[in-house]
Write a structure and sequence with these properties.
This protein is an alpha/beta fold. The chain folds into 3 domains: 2-108, no CATH class; 130-341, Tandem AAA-ATPase domain (Rossmann fold), CATH 3.40.50; 345-575, Rossmann fold. The chain has helices spanning 2-9, 42-51, 68-80, 90-110, 130-141, 155-166, 180-190, 253-263, 280-290, 298-305, 317-326, 356-376, 380-415, 427-436, 451-462, 496-503, 527-533, 541-544, 555-582; strands at residues 25-30, 35-40, 61-65, 83-85, 144-147, 171-175, 200-202, 216-220, 238-242, 267-271, 330-331, 345-351, 420-424, 443-445, 468-472, 486-489, 515-521. The strands form 3 sheets. It has a 7-stranded parallel sheet, sandwiched between helices. Helix 8 links the parallel strand 9 and strand 10 (267-271). The radius of gyration is 28 Å and the shape is elongated. The N and C termini lie far apart (82 Å). The relative contact order is 0.08.
């Protein structure tokens, strides 16, 4: 009786196909190719090939990917054409059909779920905005999906809130190299497991090793190929692919490893601010990682959705987007969609990686100067000059070491359609930006240009001819660049007033958008102390979305902060010297 009541809940096409009357053929599972195979009379195999593009093989045979959507449709076909299921495959079919039924019920239930959700108390530190609560509800209802919110709307936080709400751990985070440190920081800040911060292990190197017990594991895309055969067997309950457009090209070891990993996880979430509907190959490859063959095989997808077999251009992107949303495969909100919830200006301190080898090399002459400061005890004037050289040298070492990672971060913003003002201090740093971001043809306002060149750079950016303008922190005065949607500080200054003035190049009269200001902070060097001097703690969530401005400080306060930093460096240097003497 209970079984009948459960069966009544299933859609009609998912009810048990009775083996009555004529049997048209057999249904069996091919374990090697992971597909179901119908062998039977021409009437049923011909019907299958018409209904399911891509199922053609040989005469009297049709094959289907073992996908929960397709399994349901094969069951529907069997209601019309009863098939004999091979005895050895009966339990496997029952399991596959149960999965199809569960998916159908989840899709129906998703329509009735609360529009907004919050993680359980004690599992998450932070307050979600209303549109982020909606995102959390969506992620909880759809275990294999793509969160494609525009950059700056908190995809990372929504994904972490999902882990807090579902408890799907251990989980694996697959992240671009330049965002590894930020994910580690954000996970420690927002997630709570057993009353404390989660245990996080960052996977290093291409050669697999025994992993320690942890709640979250992190790996970057470049290492996936080395761990291809290991990670799928680790028993991860969830995998999150950040910037999943990294997998938009099939046929690589990275893609193959990601596909095997996704197949073994209960929950697979993709994050991307740059979903691509009109490039058929790319969106099919991305969604295929999330839910294998949910858009059919490549040939049938390109024939029906694109302009013909193998064609990469989707004929009607809006129609494809509507289908993906209806199937719970994608959720996308833009800043314009939620602008009423956003303050005019948002500040986000984001941790970013740096090249330790480059930093150490550039710091050698700085450390020699620091030794001179310790040993020679120069007079006040000479000491001030020496301190200034030490500070400038360390700031440049910090900026140069993190410059390639800053460029990678800005590249993602530009690919997402943002208009970016990138601020730096040292010409050596800006020269690296010029090389790393050359394909975007940035314009520069660095203090080295003539007045005419400076005006030309402003015109090109404001007219839409260029979407990236690189500006010296001390050359921003008087510029009107309100077309920008993002401000990025690749280097920091000791003075909050300098940053406020730089932010206001974009946040001016005529600006209709919500400006996002990224402060990119490296783990070593001067950034940490400069961050404190600016009044910018590594962002708590409320601050991330808040509209509070750092307290303005005068020049003397900035100078005191810089001097205090030098004194701290000197103390560390002296402690290191005493340690060597003791040896």
């Amino acid at each position: 009786m209970e079984e009948n009541r459960s069966a009544d809940k299933w859609p009609a096409y998912l009810r048990d196909a009775e083996k009555t009357g004529h049997i048209y053929g057999t249904l069996s599972y091919n374990r090697r190719s992971r597909c179901w195979t119908i062998k039977g009379e021409p009437c049923v195999t011909e019907m299958a090939k018409r209904l399911f593009p891509g199922s053609e093989r040989r005469r009297g045979e049709a094959r289907f990917t073992a996908n929960r959507r397709i399994v349901g449709e094969v069951n529907w076909l069997m209601l019309r054409y009863p098939l004999e299921i091979a005895a050895r495959d009966r339990a496997l079919w029952d399991k596959a059909l149960a999965g199809a039924r569960e998916h159908a019920l989840r899709r129906e239930a998703a329509e009735k779920l609360p529009v907004r959700a919050n993680p359980p108390e004690g599992t998450f530190c932070g307050a979600l905005r209303e549109f982020q609560k909606e995102g959390l509800s969506f992620l909880m209802a759809n275990e294999r999906t793509l969160l494609a919110d525009e950059m700056g709307l908190g995809k990372t936080v929504q994904a972490l809130a999902m882990l807090a709400a579902t408890g799907d751990m251990p989980a694996l985070l697959v992240v671009p190299p330049h965002l590894m440190r930020n994910w580690e920081s954000e996970a420690s800040r927002f997630l709570r497991v057993r009353g404390g911060a989660p245990r996080i292990h960052v996977i290093r190197g291409l050669k697999p090793y025994a992993l320690p017990e942890a709640d979250l594991y992190m790996i970057h895309y470049l290492l996936l190929r080395g761990w291809k055969n290991v990670l799928p067997e680790m028993g991860f309950r969830a995998v999150i692919f950040d910037e999943i457009q990294e997998l938009r090209h099939a046929g690589t070891e990275k893609y193959s490893a990601a596909s095997l990993l996704a197949e073994k996880c209960e929950r697979v979430i993709g994050l991307s601010g740059t979903p691509i509907y009109n490039r058929g190959a790319e969106i099919w490859n991305v969604v295929n990682i999330l839910d294998f063959h949910c858009l059919g095989d490549w040939e049938s997808f390109t024939r029906e959705w694109c302009d013909g077999y193998g064609n990469h251009i989707v004929r009607d992107p809006a129609l494809l987007g509507a289908h993906l949303r209806r199937e719970g495969l994608i959720l996308r909100r833009t800043k314009q969609d939620v602008l009423s919830e956003l303050p005019p200006k948002r500040r986000l301190v984001q941790e970013i990686d740096a090249d330790d080898r480059v930093y150490r090399e550039l710091m050698r002459p700085v450390m020699e100067l620091l030794g001179s400061l310790r040993e020679l005890h120069p007079d006040a004037k000479e000491r001030a000059l020496l301190e200034e050289r030490i500070s400038a040298g360390e700031r440049q070492a910090t900026g140069v070491a993190k410059a390639p990672f800053v460029a990678a971060f800005v590249r993602a913003l530009l690919d997402g359609g943002e208009k970016v003002l990138l601020f730096a201090h040292h010409h050596a740093v800006m020269d690296i930006y010029k090389k790393e971001l050359s394909s975007y043809k940035p314009v520069f306002i660095t203090g080295r240009e003539s007045t005419a060149k400076k005006e030309e750079a402003v015109t090109r950016f404001m007219s839409g001819e260029r979407n990236l303008c690189v500006i010296s922190l001390r050359a921003a005065s008087g510029l009107n660049l309100q077309r920008a949607s993002c401000v990025v500080f690749g280097e920091l200054d000791w003075s909050p007033a300098v940053h406020s003035q730089a932010e206001d190049r974009a946040h001016r009269m005529g600006q209709q958008d919500s400006i996002l200001c990224y402060y990119l902070v490296a783990p070593q060097g001067s950034d940490r102390d400069m961050q404190d001097a600016l009044g910018l703690k590594v962002s708590q969530f409320v601050q991330l979305m808040g509209d509070g401005s750092p307290e303005m400080a005068d020049v003397q306060k900035a100078q005191r902060a810089a001097k205090k930093h030098i004194e701290r460096m000197l103390a560390c240097h002296e402690a290191a010297g005493k340690g060597k003497d003791a040896e």
